[in-house]
Structures
1.
Amino acid sequence: GQQVMQIPQYQHVQEGEDFTTYCNSSTTLSNIQWYKQRPGGHPVFLIQLVKSGEVKKQKRLTFQFGEAKKNSSLHITATQTTDVGTYFCAGAVPWGKLQFGAGTQVVVTP
Amino acid sequence: GAGVSQSPRYKVAKRGQDVALRCDPISGHVSLFWYQQALGQGPEFLTYFQNEAQLDKSGLPSDRFFAERPEGSVSTLKIQRTQQEDSAVYLCASRRRGGAISDTDTQYFGPGTRLTVL
C-alpha cells in the first residue's frame, strides 16, 4: 500500500534560519496536503498541491510538489518561534482519505 | 461558524471497559473521517462516512472498534473491551462534500479525544 515518509523526524532551528522538510511516497500521489500540529493541538490544514511541479507560497512557507508526484517539500524562511510544531504531509486518495507521514517536529531556539 | 467538536476531550478507562467517543462535524458537511493518533506519530485512518453510509472501514484495528453516523451528522466511535494499546488521541475530521476532493474542499479536524486505558 501507499507509504508516506518524512525526513527529518526532528528539526532544531535557530530563530531566523531557514529549513526544509521532505516528504516521499512509494507510489504516485493524486495530491498532497500539508498540516501543522501545535503541541497538544490538532492538525490544521496548511495547503494542498495537485499539479506536477506545483509550487505554492504562504508568506514565509514555500511548498513544492515533485514532477513525478511522489515527493514534496516544505521550506520555511526566517524561522520564528511561532513556527514551532509538527508538520505533517499527507497523501490523499480521490475521496479524501489521508495517509499521513510521521511528521517533522520543529523546535526553534530564540 | 463552529468547527468540528468532539467529546469528551479526555477519557480514562479501565482495561476491559467500553467507551464511546462523539464527533459533531461542521454543519452540512457530507464527509466524516475518524483517525487514531498515537504519541509521536501521524494520524492513522480508521474509517470514512459519506452522509450516513460507512464507505470505508479498512483502518479499524479490530472488531472491537465500531463507528456509526445514523443520521448523517453526528458520529460515534465505540471501542469495546478496551486494551492498553487503544490509548491514543482519536481525531474526527469533516469535509464539505463527498466524492472526489477538490483544491478548495479540505478536511477540518476536531480537537480530538485523548483516550487513556489503564
2.
Amino acid sequence: EAQVTQNPRYLITVTGKKLTVTCSQNMNHEYMSWYRQDPGLGLRQIYYSMNVEVTDKGDVPEGYKVSRKEKRNFPLILESPSPNQTSLYFCASRETGFGAGELFFGEGSRLTVL
Amino acid sequence: AQRVTQPEKLLSVFKGAPVELKCNYSYSGSPELFWYVQYSRQRLQLLLRHISRESIKGFTADLNKGETSFHLKKPFAQEEDSAMYYCALSGLRNRDDKIIFGKGTRLHILP
C-alpha cells in the first residue's frame, strides 16, 4: 500500500529537549516536504526536498532542520523546541516533473512543547 | 508573487443547499490547481485536480484563467462534506515543484 508514515503521532516534550519526527514514504517519490498546521493559519511549509541531499527552506524554517540522506526518509529535527512550535505537523511526498500530480500526506504528528 | 487566496475561513451551508468554496490564485507561469480535503482527525487527501476534470463526491472545479480562479462547487451539500478544504497550486511545466496552499476554508454543513 502506498503510504507516508510519520512517527511519533503524538508527543509532549519540554522546552529545549531535542526531538526528531521521522517521515518515510514507499512510493519512490523524489519530492518530500514538511508542513505545520495551525488554526487560522492553514498549512505552512517548513522545508522541502527535491531529491537526495537537496533541501530548501519553505515559509517557516526557523527552529527546524531536515536531512535527506535517503530517498525514502525525510526527518524533521527540532534542536531546541520552544512552545511556539506546538503544532500539528504533516509530511508529504509526490513525484516531480511535468504534471507531477498529487501530494500524499502522512497522518500527522501532534507536538506539544511545554 | 505566487499566491493562493481562500477568502472564507468558515462557510456554513444547509444540507441540500449548493456549496461554493472560493479560490483565487496568482502565478506567473502555467499553474496546476488542486483541492485537498481534510476530514476531522484525518490526513489531507486530494479531492480534485484541474487537469483531470473529474467530479469527485459530487464536487467539481473549473479553472478560470481569465479570473484566475478555481472555485469548488457542489449542487447539493451533504453532512459528510463537513471538513477543511485547501486550494493549492503548483507549476505545471517547470521543475520548481514548490506547492503553495491557501489558508483553508472550513465547511460546516448544517442539518
3.
Amino acid sequence: GESVGLHLPTLSVQEGDNSIINCAYSNSASDYFIWYKQESGKGPQFIIDIRSNMDKRQGQRVTVLLNKTVKHLSLQIAATQPGDSAVYFCAENGQAGTALIFGKGTTLSVSS
Amino acid sequence: NAGVMQNPRHLVRRRGQEARLRCSPMKGHSHVYWYRQLPEEGLKFMVYLQKENIIDESGMPKERFSAEFPKEGPSILRIQQVVRGDSAAYFCASSPRQGPAETQYFGPGTRLLVL
C-alpha cells in the first residue's frame, strides 16, 4: 500500500521549476513500471517506463527513479511547463503480468 | 497511425438499460484490456482479451458485465441492467504482445452516466 508521507495528491509549481512526483508501489515482485499522464477528459498517455533491473531512466525532460528497497518510484519533470498540468499516475504490472495496477494520482498544477 | 479508438465517447443510460462500449485497438495490436475509473480515482483493471479469447477477467464484476473480442471487429464491453454505480469512465488499452513489460496504450475512454 501507500507509504504515508510519500504520496501527495496535489503538487503546485511555478513554470520553469523542476517537479518531483512520488509513488509507492505495492508488489515487491513487480518488474515493470510506467508513468502515465492524464489530462482532463482524456485517456492516460504513456510518458516513460522502467524495468526492475534498472534504477534510473531518462527521457526528454523526464526522469524516472526506481528504489526497489523501499518500493518507491518517482517521476522528475525538468523545466515544468503549463502544458504539463495534468494528473500523473504510476502503474506496475500485476501478479499475472497482464493487468496494470495503478497508484493514486497526483494532480500537477503549473502556474506561469 | 491511429491510436486506440473508443466509442461512444459519452453514453447516457437509464437504470435497467444496457450499455455497449466499443474499442478498436491500435493497428497491429491483438491484446486488449479494459479498465474502469471512478471520479477522483485511479484506473482499475477489469478484463484482458486476445482475439476470440478472454485471458484474465479477474477484475470483472461477476454479474451484468461481459466482454468479447471477436475475430473481426472491435472489442465490446457490455453492461446489462445498468445501475447508478456503473457511472464511470471506461478505458480500453491495447498492446502488440503479451508480457509483463509490454506497454499498454490507452484510448480516450467512454464516459458512462446512468440516470
